[in-house]
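Example 9 (inverse folding). The structure is encoded as follows.
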């Protein structure tokens, strides 16, 4: 085991592990490069530094709760087997997410086994198992040896009336009983009020207070149907934060039905949440969840908030999880996608080659991705010269002009100009030059 788990109740949980250079340090280096006039500054945060006046937000380290194996697995058409789940769990553990929600032990044998196996194997992350408030669910999660029993019950009027057919009093009572039962097993308890963002805030606060009194140290505020806006999320989290004792830790769990899951998660953190529930690539039911890699990168680079996640692994994990799920990522996927750091337009390429921070929001290598200079109809001289140099050619003015002509003529039809094509054009250029030299000499 690389890092110790927190033991006594008074300790911070999960353990604080220094992972990445602090933002201040990075910004300092960035600024130093700038002051020294270093055009090759690779820290890439200059733009952020300037726009924010250098004021990184401060605060506690943000817990990352990954639910790819539970909520992500609810993605329609996806059915992961035990080996696939274990493979993803190992990646997540290596990535240093703080908690892996490995499944819903009462729901199936596979989920039960997954929770138990991952709990035994994980060397860094803690393992959570989901449970409704029924004793059977709690017992199954405890039997699967989950570190954290994640108890949930809906609190919105529409869910209580049409799904649960329970009154507000009955819901509070069921929640408290379930939390007490889980605590009885010695497990840590995380309580989720399903559909929290559509619940009456006063009632919601009363539910959370009751479960905290019953021993739940962690509460989660889910935007189950993805209908919150960032300003609503920030307000709701700060309202709940004020209603609870300071020792209660708060997660947010945002769905992406309006494409706001990442923004809502960040807004939740601004409102006082200290944990985010995410899935790799945002995989999940309907429009999906908040994407781990996007939330973590934004926390780090835009808000100056630390997580334990090894940023440099993000691209590899994103690609591997997509492969196992059998889902192709769109090229414009932020942070980890093929085009996340690809540049084609002449002005952009020229800028990036002089200083990457001109058109890059963060250094690609910091998130394990890489810069790609793409040749196409929009390319300028700098990009062509750069590509030729990278292939070992001397980019003379003439040669660059020749390639630019070829690009204007053929790129729209080719869609993708790869090295082979470029190589062929360079050969054509030299052949035609030899011919014209030969013709001159023969004349
Ligand atoms: Zn969910």
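The amino acid assigned to each position is listed next.
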């Amino acid at each position: 085991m690389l890092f110790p788990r927190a033991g006594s109740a008074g300790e911070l949980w999960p353990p604080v592990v220094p992972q990445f250079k602090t933002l201040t340090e990075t910004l300092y280096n960035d600024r130093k490069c700038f002051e020294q006039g270093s055009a090759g500054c690779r820290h890439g945060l200059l733009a952020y530094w300037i726009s924010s006046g250098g004021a990184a937000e401060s605060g506690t380290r943000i817990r990352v709760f990954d639910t790819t194996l539970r909520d992500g697995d609810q993605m329609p058409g996806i059915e992961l087997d035990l080996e696939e789940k274990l493979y993803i769990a190992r990646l997540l553990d290596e990535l240093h997410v703080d908690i892996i929600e490995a499944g819903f032990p009462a729901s199936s044998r596979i989920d039960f086994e997954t929770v138990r196996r991952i709990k035994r194997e994980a060397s860094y992350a803690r393992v959570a198992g989901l449970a409704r408030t029924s004793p059977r669910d709690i017992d199954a999660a405890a039997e699967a040896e989950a570190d954290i029993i994640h108890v949930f019950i809906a609190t919105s009027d529409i869910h209580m009336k049409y799904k649960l057919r329970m009154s507000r009093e009955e819901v509070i009572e069921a929640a408290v009983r379930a939390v007490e039962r889980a605590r009885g097993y010695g497990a840590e308890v995380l309580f989720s009020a399903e559909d929290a963002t559509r619940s009456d805030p006063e009632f919601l606060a009363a539910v959370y207070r009751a479960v905290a009194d019953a021993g739940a140290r962690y509460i989660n505020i889910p935007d189950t149907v993805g209908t919150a806006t960032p300003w609503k999320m920030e307000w709701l989290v700060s309202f709940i934060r004020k209603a609870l004792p300071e020792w209660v830790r708060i997660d947010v769990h945002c769905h992406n039905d309006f494409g706001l899951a990442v923004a809502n998660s960040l807004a939740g953190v601004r409102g006082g949440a200290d944990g985010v529930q995410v899935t790799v690539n945002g995989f999940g039911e309907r429009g999906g969840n908040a994407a781990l890699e996007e939330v973590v990168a934004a926390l780090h680079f835009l808000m100056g908030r630390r997580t334990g996640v090894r940023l440099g692994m993000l691209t590899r994990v994103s690609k591997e999880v997509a492969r196992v799920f059998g889902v192709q990522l769109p090229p414009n996927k932020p942070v980890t996608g093929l085009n996340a750091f690809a540049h084609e337009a002449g002005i952009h390429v020229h800028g990036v080659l002089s200083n990457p921070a001109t058109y890059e929001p963060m250094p690609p290598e910091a998130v394990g991705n890489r810069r790609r200079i793409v040749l196409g109809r929009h390319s300028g001289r700098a990009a062509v010269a750069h590509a030729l140099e990278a292939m070992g050619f001397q980019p003379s003015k003439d040669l660059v002009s020749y390639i630019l002509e070829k690009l204007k003529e053929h790129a729209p039809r080719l869609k993708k100009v790869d090295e082979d094509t470029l190589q062929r054009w360079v050969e054509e250029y030299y052949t035609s030059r030899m011919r014209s030299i030969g013709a001159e000499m023969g004349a």
